[in-house]
Amino acid sequence: MSAEAVELRGITKRFPGVVANDGVDLAVHTGEVHALCGENGAGKSTLMKILYGMQAPDEGTIAVGGAEMHFRTPADAIAAGIGMVHQHFMLADNLTIAENVLLGAEKQHGIGRAARARISELAGTVGLAAADGSGARSAGAPLDMLVEHLGVADRQRIEILKVLYRGARTVILDEPTAVLVPQEVEELFATVRAMRGEGYTFLFISHKLDEVRAIADRITVLRRGRTVGTVDPREVGNAELAEMMVGSELPSPESRDSSVTDREVLRVEGLGLPDPAGGRDLLDGLDLVVHAGEVLGIAGVEGNGQTELVETVMGMRRHARGRVLLSGVDVSGLSTMARRERGIGYVPEDRSRHALLGDQPLWANRVLGFQSRPPIGRHGLIDRGAARTDTERIVADFDVRTPGIDVMASALSGGNQQKLVVGRELSGDPVLLIAAHPTRGVDVGAQAGIWAELRRARRAGLAVLLVSADLDELIGLSDRLAVILGGRLVGTADPATVTPEELGTAMTGATR
């Protein structure tokens, strides 16, 4: 490893009321995997946006390959050989792999034979299929396959392929394992290691410390906008890394004290949901029961019906067959608001789309979903004073770190946004909480707080339907586990004995 691929010196970025980066230093060697860790609000995202040209620093310098750079747009960063794979994929399902790679990069190699040859060459680098002159293909997805037919792991490879096609030699991976099962994580790591051997450089952003230590050559930790230090993963453990990140020990979702009762809260019978596009049913004869004081964990590779199950139980989708019963009452014909009024709390998988209004203050976000119930809704009107008072309670009880309740929701870090959502949804003593990826993209400190609140509510008799891509979280929090595949529940597992590897195998259908 020779010259620095990327070197950031004294990077400072200020926003109203907060210093996101405060003199941050980061040096990434050519041909290494360099992990960047820190709790939400530590400044990781801001630093990467600065490196990728999405924001300009107030102070400090950026050097690429020893030459100082001034990025005004992502196009500037791409021209300097820096690419970024975002946590949420940005692919067009109705286009092929090759078309997705070409989209927006038509000037690179045109759209004909030269472009196809370059895509094929890079496809092998990222572990996708490539076609040679004879038409033979390696194992994997062919370049003319529609993206809608691909799984999460192949979609991620396409995102990496896109940035390589645009000339990236340094690749930023933002939470790349958030939606992968253990076997897919190993495949990704194998791809990253192979590419590192070819001279590519990676900046790897993650909250999963086991994975960081498995893949990274070095780890830089940020805390409250400052560089805490850079360490060798072979010389530190998870506990030391967690303490560097948040100043406390690593939390665990483990919860083996049973509070399960015989009282049914949620019963789903024969749930069927057709595919509007005419394909196989999105949900196909699905049955489940959740009792008071119980967490039922749903394990599955994304795209196998988890989202449809959650949104159907919430009334956001209208099912064609079956029933949804809440505390013995059929609520299948009720609206989403009516179901919420009967005691369903909802933590959606995408808080920015379905849980928060980013351009509204925290107290206004407290109103969402509760506008028809006391203390927020009274006689058809919204009690702003009550909303403000209860928001202050949530901020205090759930450790939402904010200068005040008039701050816009978008100004909070992801972890603090999530704590606000969880606090709101546990207000009003719900009987059922539907939690979809409740700690996705949040740091270990926020994880610990959310896990503690879920355990507390469960002990108090709350029924929880938990969907998560974090298998340690699923195993640690759940009283029972069910595996969903192709819109059906295909098996169960005991969280006291199952391993993440066994659960991952069942999720992919290998044991069927």
Automatic annotation (TrEMBL):
CDD domains: ABC_Carb_Monos_I, ABC_Carb_Monos_II. It holds the Pfam family ABC_tran. GO terms for molecular function: ATP binding; ATP hydrolysis activity. SUPFAM superfamilies: P-loop containing nucleoside triphosphate hydrolases. Keywords: ATP-binding, Nucleotide-binding, Repeat, Transport. Residues 6-249, 266-511 form the ABC transporter domain. Transmembrane segments: none annotated. This is Nucleoside ABC transporter ATP-binding protein. It comes from Pseudonocardia ammonioxydans.
